[in-house]
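Section: Multi-chain targets

For targets with more than one molecule, the full set of components is provided together so that the structure can be written out for the assembly as a whole rather than chain by chain. Components appear in the order listed by the source. The example entry contains two components.
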Amino acid sequence: MRKIGWDAEDAALQAEIMTAAELCGNNQGLVKMYNPSLMAPSPGAAKPTIERETPTSAVVNANQSPGMLAAVNAADLALQKLRSQDGPIAIVTAYNTSTSSGQLAFYCERMARQGAIGIALANSPEFVAAAPGGKPIFGTNPVAFGIPQAAGPPLTFDMATSAIALFGVLTSKAKGEPLPEGVAYGRDGGFTTDASEALEGGAIATFGGHKGAGLSLCVELLAGVLSGGAVVGQCESKKLAKSWGHTMIAIQPDLLVDGFEAKAAAVLAATKASGPSIRLPGESSARTAAERTAADALPIPKQIWESICRTAEHGLPEQ
Amino acid sequence: MRKIGWDAEDAALQAEIMTAAELCGNNQGLVKMYNPSLMAPSPGAAKPTIERETPTSAVVNANQSPGMLAAVNAADLALQKLRSQDGPIAIVTAYNTSTSSGQLAFYCERMARQGAIGIALANSPEFVAAAPGGKPIFGTNPVAFGIPQAAGPPLTFDMATSAIALFGVLTSKAKGEPLPEGVAYGRDGGFTTDASEALEGGAIATFGGHKGAGLSLCVELLAGVLSGGAVVGQCESKKLAKSWGHTMIAIQPDLLVDGFEAKAAAVLAATKASGPSIRLPGESSARTAAERTAADALPIPKQIWESICRTAEHGLPEQ
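Its structure, encoded as tokens over all components, is:
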């Protein structure tokens, strides 16, 4: 990370966030270093600054620093706003970032580990169509929740509102494998399992039919428009505009209800016990992380490891 | 409504909310009067009261008044909290209600018509399983958004996190028609199209696979636990506990970004223009409402109309 232009602090933070994702098998991990130029600082990038503060809110101008840095800033600031007021809710947005924010669960878990409910939304460049036959307009527009609970680490739930994450499509393309059925549209607007076609002239689908499309639109409005990030209808290309938008909401449960964490734990236990095949969000990530920690080894695809080593030695490839 | 025990004010409000839903073809409309005893006041019910206020929050104890009344109170209070502080966000919860809140879009639109982004979540009695083979534990747990925008009335998006609304299942059962594929589980935990089996020994499914299930769980935690409403693991039966939980969040966009409503309108226009089959949330409801208004007629199923007339004349049936 330092070799591509980040200072020690920002490099460490980005490495921490990507490694945390990689540890639990999330697709927002070290794969980001496969094309390191996408992760390099924009020309003229500066550290994030705070704009428009109120006792319960702030707007973070990322000043073209990476989305991960902006998102950590926004999450930490949301917690700080929560602690320095008399009420139980705060909102912080971020915009003008140079890269995506990676795994939103990271920021929600960070808030929840300090006792706050964390909600995070992000919009992103146009890869997802609102319906069959539509041009790509939404990003994979993820939503995540971090919920403190008494019986263990916070529950984190992090989902793209698209039927498949962009990195899922890129992975299929790289491996030459077909996509699952029903997750992407081809050039003619019908479903395709060809990752290349989905990326060039086609689009990713939203999950869950019109409900997923509605949620994706709401994320575009709440994380894109509300943050001041780039959105369709306001710029020619979100990809070129480089301004991922984030909205973080932190809620302190104590001022609303007694014993939130114990009751949340009871709901999770009852949910888990409600059937033989019930898996709580985060369960398989936690298992993967535990296995990798126990093995003291992180399996990294050869091409990505080679890219990381090459970048560490030589920096960015010549243009 | 007065004949089953509500005072003039509460009767008028509940009638307004149900008729608004009926006008736009929403399944949370006058069908609620098919079984009027479910809509009658609980013994000892009182008007909602406010508990635990802060400058940015409140908790509404519905005192066993109906969910619709509690939800209107919570939405209006969220707006009031928004107006009387220096920041852009407020949260109000409600619990201890005697009935469901009906159509959440009503409350979000109410907030958005006054320039605020409205977000509403509600938990409800156990009809929905978290995965195939699971017992019903979640409610249909809806989420709704109201977004003010410059080019017309607010965008409202209101979705159950279940694959089908409870009233959809009840309607199938009443008509003797099969359910759509993939929306409900039978007694053996596999999918069924038999509405009776889904209601007795089976369960409704969540929408969108594990993502919908995760969202439903988050609504249970954010609208059920956070509000103090009845939740699994904390009571034997949510149905008997009669305490639907609501969480309303109101956000004033001006303090975060300039020109929110115009930018939101641009996103909606770009989304609509992105393909031939794109329908924005609320478009078909608005068309239905316009047609019914133009015809000056509200089509009401005969059995429901007869129930309304019978109730207006004789009150509740003898037990």
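The longest helix of chain A spans residues 67-83.
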